[in-house]
Structure formats: C-alpha cells, structure tokens
C-alpha cells in the first residue's frame, strides 16, 4: 500500500471510538487533519484520554520581536488537547472547543529544539470535556502550559470527508474551487 486508504462509514472514521480513529492516524492508516501537515506537527502517540504531539520550531515562525509566534504554540496545543479529548470519547461522539487557555512561561526559538506537547483529558461529562497539557523543549524545560474545555456532541453521520491516497500538502490550502 502506497499511503493511507480512504475510509468510508464502515472504516476508522465512521464506526470506531475516538481512540480508534487516532490510533489509525498514528499507524498511518488514515491521514491526520490537514492542519497538522500545514503546521508541521506530528502525532507521536495516543492513549486512552491522552496524546503526545511534536514539532520543530524554525525562524520562519518568529514574530517581529524574535521568538516563535504564540499562534504556532497555540496550534500545537489545540491539536494535542483536542486529540486527548477525542481519544476519551466513545464511537459516535466528538467535541468542539469552547475555551483554550495558554500560559507562556519562556520564549521558544529554533534553538529550543523539538517541542513536545503531552496532553491528558482530566474530566469527561455527558456534554463537556476538559484537558490539560504541557509543552517542553528538547531539554525537557516546560515552556508553556494549557487547558481546554469542549462541548461533547454527536459525530455527524457523514463523518469526515474521504482522505486522498496521498499526504496533505500546503498547496491544498491554496486551491480555489
């Protein structure tokens, strides 16, 4: 097989739990969200109620004052916290973000090395979920922490659109229908 197979309603996207979906992404059976490719973020591992993601910061992400722009860190947190929540949800359920709070503790630069976010779902209710995460640099220093609250909803019956049998490319975002 050359790449991830598209999944219909009976595949990973339609019938499995959130953990099943994320495990299929880690295994390369289905593609992760295109935002991960756009931002250069890798889904490293998932477990029930948790996820670990990483990315290497580059100077192309710097803000006018020098360090990596906070939005690059926020995107990493958003995907990690959301993955932690999704991994704890049963089949047929997903979430939508209500609130994300980030505390930036030290600047991140290209010299920080690979950034790793470890996220864990901390509370799951019928209609709400919460998760927390830490971002560490290559030396293991905590650079930022974050929390997320989400609303738990039914997964739409059509599921996610079928994934092409190729990797996502930034040029996909630039195509006009």
From TrEMBL:
Domain annotation Thioesterase: ranges: 66-144
CDD domains per UniProt: PaaI_thioesterase
Alphabetical UniProt keywords: Hydrolase
GO molecular function, one term: acyl-CoA hydrolase activity
Domain of life: Bacteria
Name used for this protein in its record: Thioesterase domain-containing protein
